[in-house]
Design brief:
Helix content: 25-40%
Family: Belongs to the ABC transporter superfamily.
Shape: globular
Organism: Labrys wisconsinensis
Low-confidence stretches: none
Pfam families: ABC_tran (PF00005)
Keywords: Amino-acid transport, ATP-binding, Nucleotide-binding, Transport
Strand content: 25-35%
InterPro entries: AAA+_ATPase, ABC_transporter-like_ATP-bd, ABC_transporter-like_CS, BCAA_Transport_ATP-bd_LivF, P-loop_NTPase
Order of helices and strands: EEEHEEHEHHHEHEHEEH
Structural class: alpha/beta
Bound molecules: adenosine-5'-triphosphate
Length: about 250
Amino acid sequence: MSGFLAVDGLRVAYERDIEILRGVDLGIEAGGLAAIIGPNGAGKSTLLKAVAGLAPVVGGTTTFLGARIDGLSPPALRRLGIAFVAQEDSVFPEMSVRENLRLGGWVRRKERAWLDRRIEECAALFPAIVPHLDRRAGLLSGGQRKLVEVARGLVAEPKLLLLDEPTAGLSPAMVRELYRQLARLKQAGISILLVEQNVREALEVADHVYVLAMGLNDVDGPAREISRRLPEIVQGWLGRKMSGLVA
Ligand SMILES: Nc1ncnc2c1ncn2[C@@H]1O[C@H](COP(=O)(O)OP(=O)(O)OP(=O)(O)O)[C@@H](O)[C@H]1O
């Protein structure tokens, strides 16, 4: 497995004796972009949350840059350079967009001049939010708020960005804007692990794709290969659904 991020045999249970992830493996190289796809309820969000320190891990190991990180708190993970953008709307509506972005740089809050500059830089990645920097975030559309959340995740200069269904609810134009930026971030050396329902878009931007089903690895491989095999893979999900194995 990779020396950058390696997940081995990960098991998660929200309730005793009910394992949602039942031994999942995943690796991502420095500067890589990996996508996790799979049917509803497969455990995709749970996998991302577990890496972000937000799900109850009951087994397996996760290493980041060679050190064990399973069991670390979300703030400790942020300090190591792991940013997580949740699927749920997490913008503070009463605060301005700028203040929301400032929260993303909390770990470096004492470097005021740097942080002011960094906020402008991250906002500039998403031109749709620049005119709104000093408006209340609650006044923005759902799509604009999602871009604010991604920008906020980038403020502290993470090494690894975890994105949970970032395109859910976005207009086609915003999906394109987001994916254009993800491709640029990848070129700039940021590693990205994302969960996507928007399978076609994910396959275009990812270099490696993990397919999860029922809390286990189904298949994984280079995006081009998964793209070619997609009809057969989806057929497999449908087959399991028909036989009552998938929710
Ligand atoms: N906090 C929680 N407590 C208990 N069960 C949970 C919790 N979060 C998720 N689950 C359950 O874990 C399973 C996997 O959920 P998860 O959200 O990880 O799947 P997913 O593959 O991301 O699905 P979707 O594509 O529908 O978002 C589901 O059966 C879900 O009901």
